Amino acid sequence: MNCVAALSKAGSDPSDILYVSSAAQQLKQHAARRNASPSSPTHHLERLQRAGMQFNARTRRIRGMQRVYPPTVSNELSMATTVINNSSLIVVATAAMFTRLGSTIHQPVQGLLVDEAGQLTATELLAAICSLNSTFQRLVLAGDPAQLTSPLPPVLLPMYNIGLMSALVLAVSHPQSTKLALTASFRFNRPLAEAISHSCYNGRLTSATNRPPLPELQLPQFGVNKSPILFLAEDGPEVRHGNSYSNPHQLSKAVDHLAALAQQVPALQQGQRSVAIVAPYSAATRSMDGAMTPLRQAFPQLNVTIASIDQFQGREADVVYFLTIRTQPGSS
Predict the structure, then answer these.
(1) Where is the DNA2/NAM7 helicase helicase domain (predicted)?
(2) Fewer beta carbons within 10 Å, N or C terminal of the chain?
């Protein structure tokens, strides 16, 4: 959605932007439960409609498609073809959805922005472009090479080593192809950017020196810690819930730490700054939701989001707790 917001801010009509998205498989499995929630987008739209708000035909059709869970290929194709009605179309899609829905686009495309393109091999991308039933004036590929998951055949390894866009240049010999390596991070403070750079990017990621200053959140110092990153090692047995796991001791310590933090930071108490608690297992997020009840009663304005890794992807918070929940091998 950041791409759509940027395009709208640049002057593009929102009705000219097709944002194609699809939930991960794990999220699809829980989509019916989310749809039944009173806070779901579908329920909000229904309440607005009951209150007298009139929706245009396009919104009504899309809302009807959103009620079908889990989404099927035919539903996604119908949604795509419903929205595509403009000659000045800008298409924003992840690489997976672009390869899946590209052949359904028949109108001329002004701009095609493909995110997560680091997961595509050059041959996969060329095949997806060839499957388009329309012309496009500009192609923008955005991707993180550290996220590359699809195996490359040996013949393409030299191409990958010089970059995805360079591989396309060699493949199609297009004089207007350009590769931009965005290595300056604007989203993290310097110590956090350096930690990510060291662990994931072999030191190539830098913290921008000319960025606007981030609004600082003054946090109290716990022990000898002077870094924005704090590691807490808490022992305790993992508890299995079906195919999911939780660690009650770890959850309790995280709540205790947040309680101590909220008592010393008024901005957290008053909800002016946000907190996220992220865990790799749904059982942990469910358990944490219950464990947070006393703290929410003590600080009613506390702005806390509890989410799995998939649910929190692409979101931000001022303070983030990540619960590791180590699991035992096998069935022990």
Answers:
(1) 27-149
(2) C
